[in-house]
Amino acid sequence: MKDELILRKIRNGDPSGLENLMDRYIPYVSAIVWNILRSTLSREDAEEVVSDVFVTAWQKAGDVLPGSLKPWLGAVARNKAKSRLRMAGGELPLEEDVLEIPAEETPEGRMQRSEERKLVRRAVDSLEEQDREIFLRHYYYAQTVSEISRDMKINESTIKTRLRRGRLRLKTLLVRWDVR
Q1: Share of the chain residues as helix, strand and coil, in percent rounded to the nearest 5
Q2: Both 68 and 7 in a single domain?
Q3: Spatial CB neighbours of 125, under 8 Å, sequence gap ≥ 6
Q4: Can you say how many angstroms the Cα of residue 3 is from the centroid of all Cα atoms in its chain?
């Protein structure tokens, strides 16, 4: 079933839309949540966060733009997992701490970082669709090569090759655009 039909059913209050959404996206949402919570919280906590993501999807289906269901679910999953981690007193993974902008940073510095993030996003978006998905799963959602291989049904060596090719492409573009 297509995402648009699933969303239409949910917006009309049809529980089968939510069932279809969960059938399609539970592995994706679970991978995101589990990779953030890892061994910090229990499996039950992670399952509760996953459930919360789908409750939010049921409640806010009207906010989802056409064609953006999967990234929207990913963002909700990341935010809910981080919130749960904070509530439990856990620390966010290192990469999240690195992305925090220091309070004393100047407006010019914030603007430069914003421009750099846009260029990095543009570079990632320039990857072929499958390569981009592999790259984002590995570097953004912290999935391992074996997890990506299993989920996407692609050989692990192919995943590694595509990651290397993606890094080289990004490096070439970012050097050309003078992003440091």
Answers
A1: 75, 0, 25
A2: yes
A3: 132
A4: 17
**Residues 98, 53 contacting (CB under 8 angstroms):** no
Residues with Cβ within 8 Å of 99's Cβ and at least 6 positions away in sequence, in order, are none
Residue 96 belongs to a domain: no
The pLDDT tens digits along the chain (180 residues) read: 788 999 999 999 999 999 999 999 999 999 888 888 876 778 888 899 999 999 999 999 988 887 889 889 988 998 898 888 778 765 444 444 333 444 445 677 677 777 877 888 888 889 998 998 898 888 777 778 888 898 889 999 999 999 999 888 888 888 887 765
Mark which of 57, 87, 117 sits at the end of a domain. Answer: 87
Give the predicted TM-score (pTM) of the model.
0.52
Q: 3-class DSSP state for residue 29?
A: helix
Task: Quote the DSSP letter at residue 114.
Answer: H
- CB distance 24 to 32 below 8 Å: no
Same domain, 113 and 44: no
Question: CATH code at 143?
Answer: 1.10.10.10
Enclosing domain of residue 145: 101-176
Is there a contact between 50 and 29 (Cβ–Cβ < 8 Å)?
A: yes
